[in-house]
Amino acid sequence: MRILIVSDIHGNWPALQAVLAAAPPTDEVLCLGDLVNYGPQPAECVGWAMNQVDRDWVVQGNHDRALGRGEDPHCSVAYAALAAATQSATEGMLNEDMKRFLASLEPLQRFQLGEAVFVACHAVPSDPLYHYLPDIGPVTLWESELNGVGWPDFLLLGHTHLPMKTRFRKTLVVNPGSVGQPKDGDARAAYALWEDGDITLHRTAYDIEATLRAYGRLNLDPQMVAVLAEVLRTGGHLPLDQTPGELLQTFYRQHPDKLEAIFYLQKLLNRRVGLDTDRLDDRARQHWTLNYCRALVQQTARLTECVPWKWWATYEKFDKPHARIEIAELLHLVISLAQVLELTPQELFELHTKQHRLGLLSQEPTGGTPPPAKT
Question: Which CATH number applies to 2-209?
């Protein structure tokens, strides 16, 4: 029996066609997720999966779920702006059946062929949609993942866009690499073949320029297309991954809202220092809520130092420039706290306006009687 294993097609129809042409005849196709996003032809790729692949042999990727359900794919910070822009530009290309298909896929599948037990997911078994664990990750982490699924004969996954074939004790862990957006420096489409217990990794060239021409159908910023072209032509070089300023410019062109931009910048900064507020459990949220509340108290004390509150110290002056900086620092903490509590910019705006209305009502006299004078 022969199985074609593909992953991370990402709307790159010419790359998928090249893989299907290069692979020998197979009995089954296993797709490890991310049919959509980044690429210009998601409908063709989803249509292929719906019509040519057994549904139980297609696992859900983070971008599949995001486009199917209208969610954030929680991709790496360097690719966040590209993902948001292409998702917005391509979601109208998919009909409702396609979106339901993507939204309803299972993120992890277990099956058996003869005596061989397989586990297939997009990322890793403990977090099948989002977690990145490359082959150079600590052995203890891989063993923990495999222990959680009972040490199958084969663990098949994608997500990193990096081909991998590594054995941990009895389990062979295989990542076929990415069909549509390789990131290992080799621009050719990647795939794998399973044949009677043996897995081999393969590459095939495809018409990259045909993919780039297809971007002309999308309403994408030319600079965004130039970045995507660089990624495809070089096999993963991302010119926007050097400076946060370039990332912000790309994001702000797609989301010209200052509050959203502030939230975006804070998420970039927090992830850079190791805090991903999108992936906290309830206990961690309590912990970080307390951390930020304490930090706000201390930061407010620093703001107090900018004001001559010591009425007996006539030599002290009001340090307005420094006070303005402290306000920005306080905003950093407030936005981080909002993200820990899972508030979006829109929800924060709505809560603020609601409290504003309540504040106005509290100032109005009741029943025409003026409020009592304060003593």
Answer: 3.60.21.10
